[in-house]
Write a structure and sequence with these properties.
heterodimer; A: Beta-Lactamase; five-stranded antiparallel β-sheet; elongated; B: 122 residues; five-stranded mixed β-sheet; 5 strands
Chain lengths: 705, 122
C-alpha cells in the first residue's frame, strides 16, 4: 500500500514535469520572442518550474537507492563524460542537423527550435542529475543537520544565475558579481565538509583518488566549454540564460568539490589502514554480540561461528573440530566440504601437529609431507582452541588457499574471536543445562503430584486401631507407597512398598502397584497369596532392573491377629512391653524373580495382638537418613526413639521419630522418601466407651527436607 | 554427590569388578557400562567385589538384576563377594541371597567358578 502511494506520488510528479515540458515546448515554439524581456521572463519562469518539478521527481528516485559513495562518484563521472561529449560534438552534430533542417525551407525555424530544445533538454536533465548526486554526496554520513548550508548555497546559485538575466543592465553587474562571489565562498565552505571518506576502505580510497582527479578535470573542461562562446553555450543561453549560468555554477562547484575531495582523500590515505582496522573492529564487535545473543540452537551457533571466522580473517574456509571422547569431529563447515575438513581434522589431530593441546597453532600444509589429498588446495590452516571452564571443547579451524596468509592481525583477530566463540558456546551450554534442569524439575513435579494422589489422603479411623501415617517426599521422588484397605468390618489390610529407582518412572510403577494391591486386597485374604499374585502381575510390566519391596499385613479385628508377609521390605517393628521386635518373615522383593523361587521363599507370619502393641512400618528413608558425616540414622537409633515414646499415641510417636530424624540429618539433604506408618492396638476401651485418643489426619508433609 | 567408580580385573576366565564409593540411581549407569563392556567381550564369569562399596541403593541393586539373565543364558554367573555387613544387610532384606551366590571373599567366588569349570570338563 505504502509503495503504491510512493509510486502514485512519483507518477504525479512525473506527469507534472511532462506537463510543464509540453507547455514550455509549445511556448518556445509558438510564442517565444527573444527580444522582449517579458517573453524572456515568462520563458525563465517556465524553465524554472520545469527544472523544479524534475528535481522533485528525481530526488526521490535517487535518494531511495542504497547509497555507496563510490558509485555516486562514478555516476557523476559518467554524466560529466556525457556532458563533455555533448559540448565537444555539439558544434559538429548540431551544425549538421541545422544544415539538414535548412534543407526543408518551410519549417526551418521550427526544426531548428526543436533541435535546440532537445539538445538543451538533455543538458538540463544531466545538470539536474549531477546537482542531485552532488547533493546526495554532500549529505552522505553528515551527522549534524547541515541542510542549511547546502540550501543557502543552492539559493545563491540561483541568485547568481538570475544575475545573468540582468546582463542587459550593466549598472547592476555588481549584484551579479556579489552573488557569484558569495556562491564561490559557499562552495568552498561546503566542499570542505566531506565526512564520508572516513567510512570507505583503503582500496576504495585509492580508486577514489584517481576518480576525483579525472572528474575534477572533466568539471573544469565542461566549465570552460559551457562558459565559452561556443555553439553549445549559445544554444543554451538562447534556451535559458539562467539555466546556462546555473550549469556554470554547478560546474564550478563540481570542480572545486572534487579537487578538495582529491586532497582530502590524499590526506586520508596514510591513515586509511588504521581506519579500516578500527572499522573492522567495530564490525567484529557487532558479530560478537550477535554470537552471544544467538545461543539457543547449537547448530545455528556453530554455523554462525564458522561464518564469522571467514569474515574476520583472511581465511576462505572455516569449520569446528569438536572434541568427543578424545577424538575430533568436524561440525559446521563454511567454505569447505565435509570431506576436506574431515581429512584435515584427522590429519592434524591424529598426527598431533601441535606443540601443546589447548593452545592456538598454525600449520603450513605445503611444507608437510604426506599431507592429505584435498579436493581444494588449502595451504595454511589456523587452529584456535575453544574452551569452556578450562575444558577444551574443540578447535576453531580456519584454512586459506594462499601460503602463510595469516598475519599477526589475523592471528589476533582469530584469537579474540575464538575467545568470544568459546564464551558463546559456554553460554549455550549453561542455557541447555538450565533448560534440562527445568525439564527435570517439571518432571519431578509431575512425579510428586502422582505420588501425592496415590497415597491415602487420610488415615482410617478404627475403634481398636490408632493409626498415624507420615510421608515426606525427597526432592527426587523415591517411589514410596503405603495404603490401607478396610476390607470388611472385621478385616483391615495395610501395605507398604518402596519402588526401586527414582523420579517419574518410580512414580508410574507406584501407580501400578497401587492398582494391584487395591484390587487384590478385595479378593484375596492371605498376605502371602496377595504378594505372590502381585509378583505374577508385575512380571508382565516390570523392567528387569526394577523391583519393588513390599510388606502386606492383614489385621483381623475380631480375632485380634495380624498376619503379615514381606517381599524384601524392611522388617516390621513390633513394640511390645518396652521391647522392639523385628518381624521379618522371609521373602524376596517383587519383580526380582518370577519363578518358583519367589513363592517358595515367601513366608507368612501370624501374630496375636496384645493391648498397646505398636506396629511400625517404614521405608529405608528413615534408617538410611544420613548426617553430615554420611553416617546412617540406623535401626538401633530408630528403635530407641520408638521405645522411649511407646507410651504416647501413634501421632505423637511419629512426630518424635521424625523430629529425631530431622535433627540427625539436618546438615544433609534428604535423598529418599520417608514413610512412617504407626499402628497402635487398643484392646480395651475406657469405661465411658470413648477412646482416650483421637485419630487425626495423616501428617502429609510436603516440604522437602 | 558421592563418588563411585569401578575397575575390572581379568583373572583367567573370570573377571572381577571392583566397586568403590556410593552406588545409587545417579552412579548406576557407570556400573551398567562396566557390565555391558564385559558382556560385549563375551565374558560371562563375573565376580563383583564389594569391599570398597560404602552404600548401595535400590537402583544400584537393579543393575545386577538387569544383567543376570543374559549372563546365565550364556552359562555364566554373577557372583557377589566381600560385602560389608551393612551392604549385605541391604541385599539380604531383599532376598538376594536366594538369587545370587554371595561369598565372603573374592577368592572363594573365583574358586567356585573354577570348580564348575572342572565339573563341566569332566
Amino acid at each position: 500500500m505504502k509503495l503504491d502511494m510512493v509510486n502514485l506520488k512519483g507518477n504525479l510528479k512525473f506527469r507534472t514535469f511532462i506537463g510543464f515540458t509540453v507547455l514550455l515546448f509549445a511556448y518556445k515554439l509558438f510564442l517565444y520572442n527573444p527580444d522582449s524581456w517579458i517573453y524572456i521572463l515568462i520563458n525563465e519562469l517556465l524553465v524554472g518550474i520545469t527544472v523544479v518539478s524534475l528535481i522533485t521527481y528525481l530526488m526521490d528516485l535517487i535518494h531511495s537507492r542504497v547509497v555507496n559513495p563510490i558509485s555516486l562518484v562514478m555516476n557523476i563521472g559518467i554524466l560529466n563524460a556525457i556532458l563533455f561529449f555533448l559540448f565537444i560534438l555539439s558544434g559538429d552534430i548540431l551544425g549538421r542537423l541545422f544544415k539538414i533542417a535548412a534543407g526543408s525551407l518551410q519549417s526551418q525555424g521550427i526544426l531548428n527550435n526543436i533541435i535546440a530544445f532537445a539538445y538543451s533538454y538533455i543538458i538540463l536533465g544531466s545538470t539536474v542529475i549531477v546537482f542531485l548526486i552532488l547533493r546526495e554526496l554532500y549529505f552522505l554520513k553528515q551527522k549534524k543537520s547541515v541542510g542549511l548550508y547546502f540550501n543557502t548555497m543552492t539559493v545563491f546559485f540561483v541568485l547568481a544565475s538570475l544575475g545573468s538575466f540582468l546582463k542587459q543592465i550593466p549598472d547592476l553587474d555588481y549584484i551579479r558579481d556579489t552573488f557569484f562571489i558569495i556562491s564561490i565562498l559557499l562552495i568552498v565552505v561546503n566542499s570542505i565538509k566531506i565526512s564520508w571518506i572516513a567510512f570507505i576502505v583503503k582500496k576504495e580510497k585509492i580508486s577514489l583518488l584517481i576518480l576525483s582527479v579525472l572528474i575534477s578535470i572533466l568539471f573544469v573542461v565542461n566549465l570552460v566549454n559551457s562558459a565559452s562562446q561556443s555553439s553549445n553555450s549559445q544554444i543554451l543561453s538562447a534556451f535559458s540564460p539562467v539555466m546556462s549560468q546555473f550549469l556554470t555554477m554547478l560546474m564550478i562547484y563540481g570542480a572545486i568539490y572534487f579537487s578538495i575531495l582529491f586532497f582530502t582523500t590524499l590526506f586520508h590515505i596514510p591513515t586509511a589502514e588504521a581506519f579500516d582496522r578500527k572499522a573492522k573492529e567495530v564490525t567484529f564487535l557487532q558479530y560478537f554480540s550477535k554470537l552471544i545473543t544467538q545461543s539457543t540452537d547449537f547448530k545455528e551457533l556453530a554455523s554462525t561461528v564458522t561464518d564469522i571466522t571467514t569474515k574476520v580473517s583472511s581465511a576462505q574456509a572455516a569449520w569446528i573440530a569438536w572434541k568427543e571422547n578424545d577424538e575430533y569431529k568436524t561440525i559446521a563447515v563454511k567454505g569447505i566440504g565435509y570431506y576436506d575438513s574431515n581429512l584435515l581434522t584427522d590429519f592434524i589431530f591424529k598426527k598431533k601437529l601441535y606443540n601443546e593441546e589447548g593452545k592456538s597453532f598454525f600449520i603450513d600444509l605445503k611444507s608437510l609431507k604426506n599431507k592429505p589429498q584435498l579436493s581444494e588446495n588449502f595451504c595454511s590452516v589456523a587452529c584456535e582452541p575453544l574452551r569452556t571452564h578450562d575444558e577444551l571443547k574443540g578447535y576453531l579451524m580456519a584454512a586459506a588457499k594462499a601460503d602463510n596468509v595469516f598475519d599477526e592481525e589475523d592471528k589476533n583477530a582469530m584469537d579474540t574471536f575464538s575467545d568470544y566463540a568459546s564464551l558463546a558456546i559456554e553460554n549455550y551450554r549453561l542455557l541447555e543445562e538450565s533448560i534440562e534442569k527445568e525439564r527435570m524439575e517439571k518432571e519431578l513435579d509431575v512425579a510428586r503430584e502422582i505420588q501425592r494422589k496415590i497415597l491415602p489422603a487420610q488415615s482410617p479411623i478404627l475403634d481398636k486401631l490408632n493409626i498415624s501415617s507420615l510421608f515426606i517426599p525427597a526432592f527426587e521422588v523415591g517411589g514410596d507407597y503405603y495404603d490401607f484397605f478396610e476390607i470388611d468390618k472385621d478385616k483391615f489390610g495395610f501395605v507398604i512398598a518402596d519402588v526401586s529407582g527414582k523420579g517419574i518412572s518410580a512414580a508410574f510403577i507406584m501407580a501400578e502397584i497401587k492398582g494391584i494391591f487395591e484390587s487384590l486386597s478385595k479378593t484375596i485374604q492371605s498376605p502371602k497369596d496377595i504378594l505372590i499374585k502381585a509378583n505374577e502381575i508385575l512380571k508382565r510390566t516390570l523392567d528387569r532392573k526394577n523391583f519393588v519391596s513390599a510388606a502386606y499385613g492383614l489385621i483381623n479385628l475380631k480375632e485380634e491377629t495380624l498376619s503379615i508377609a514381606r517381599a524384601g521390605h524392611c522388617p516390621i517393628l513390633l513394640i511390645r512391653n518396652n521391647v522392639a521386635e523385628s518381624i521379618r518373615p522371609s521373602g524376596i522383593g517383587l519383580g526380582l524373580d518370577f519363578g518358583p523361587n519367589f513363592s517358595d521363599s515367601l513366608d507368612e507370619k501370624i501374630i496375636k495382638l496384645e493391648d498397646n502393641d505398636i506396629l511400625v512400618l517404614y521405608t529405608d528413608g528413615i534408617t538410611e537418613a544420613k548426617n553430615s558425616m554420611l553416617e546412617d540414622f540406623g535401626t538401633k537409633h530408630f528403635e530407641e526413639v520408638l521405645l522411649e515414646n511407646s507410651g504416647k499415641n501413634a501421632d505423637e510417636i511419629s512426630g518424635r521419630v521424625i523430629g529425631e530424624v530431622t535433627l540427625f540429618s539436618q546438615n544433609n539433604p534428604q535423598h529418599d522418601d520417608i514413610t512412617l506408618v504407626i499402628l497402635k492396638w487398643k484392646q480395651k476401651l475406657k469405661n465411658d466407651g470413648v477412646q482416650e485418643w483421637q485419630n487425626s489426619a495423616p501428617q502429609l508433609k510436603t516440604q522437602v527436607m | 554427590m558421592a563418588e563411585f567408580s569401578t575397575s575390572v580385573k581379568d583373572a583367567g576366565d573370570v573377571n572381577i569388578i571392583y566397586l568403590k564409593g556410593y552406588l545409587d540411581a545417579h552412579t548406576a549407569p557407570t556400573l551398567e557400562n562396566t557390565f555391558s563392556n564385559l558382556i560385549d567381550r563375551e565374558r560371562y564369569s563375573i565376580v563383583v567385589n564389594f569391599k570398597d562399596l560404602a552404600y548401595i541403593s535400590s537402583a544400584g541393586l537393579g543393575v545386577f538384576m538387569a544383567f543376570i539373565e543374559k549372563v546365565r543364558e550364556n552359562k555364566g554367573d554373577i557372583k557377589l563377594s566381600a560385602m560389608s555387613d551393612k551392604v549385605f544387610n541391604i541385599f539380604d532384606l531383599l532376598g538376594f541371597p536366594l538369587l545370587y551366590e554371595i561369598f565372603k571373599t573374592e577368592d572363594e567366588a573365583i574358586t567356585k567358578f573354577k570348580e564348575i569349570k572342572k565339573l563341566e570338563n569332566q
